[in-house]
Amino acid sequence: MIFLIAGHGGGDSGAVGVNGRTESAETIKFRDKIKAHLQNHGAKFKTDDDRDGLATVLNKCNTGSGSVVLDIHFNAGPKTATGVEVIVGDDAQGNDLALAMDVLDVMIKYTGLKSRGVKKESQTPRKRLGVMREHGAVCLLETCFITNETDMRKYDNVISELARELAMVLIRHDAKAS
């Protein structure tokens, strides 16, 4: 089962970036584009409810060892900060790392942005991320820097291709896990 999460629901706007764009609105838009491709391919998946906060989203997930989880976010920082990174749990196994690398590869290939790599959750400012307690192959995508005009333009130019390719990555990993 695929679990597709748009970070910062439940009234949390997340980061605010270029032209006032909010992380929550951007993650929902991106999730819904990926969701459409999953539906077109008959994939078995669940998404979060935009009204739910993180604790509620995680309580509703009910992931198992064969699950594939992608939590979508956008990074924030100085206007010059750039790139894509994917976060995995500190206890990441081969399936987590393979999913994270495939997600990162798609993002870099289509956006042309700098790879900031696959990082462990303890390397993030928060040090511990709730979604990493879920079961199965789990990763958190920091799509690009919402505070960088070039990052957002590159992302906007290929969002449809990214959604299609990420859906295919999720479907492949779900098939491996079954």
UniProtKB/TrEMBL annotation:
One cellular-component annotation, GO: outer membrane-bounded periplasmic space
Coiled coil: none
Name of the molecule in the record: N-acetylmuramoyl-L-alanine amidase
Residue ranges crossing the lipid bilayer per the database entry: none
Domain MurNAc-LAA: 58-169
PANTHER family: AUTOLYSIN PH-RELATED, N-ACETYLMURAMOYL-L-ALANINE AMIDASE
Enzyme Commission designation: 3.5.1.28
GO MF annotation terms: N-acetylmuramoyl-L-alanine amidase activity
InterPro entries: MurNAc-LAA_cat, N-acetylmuramoyl_amidase_3
One GO term (biological process): peptidoglycan catabolic process
Pfam families: Amidase_3
Organism: Formosimonas limnophila
CDD domains: MurNAc-LAA
Catalytic activity: Hydrolyzes the link between N-acetylmuramoyl residues and L-amino acid residues in certain cell-wall glycopeptides
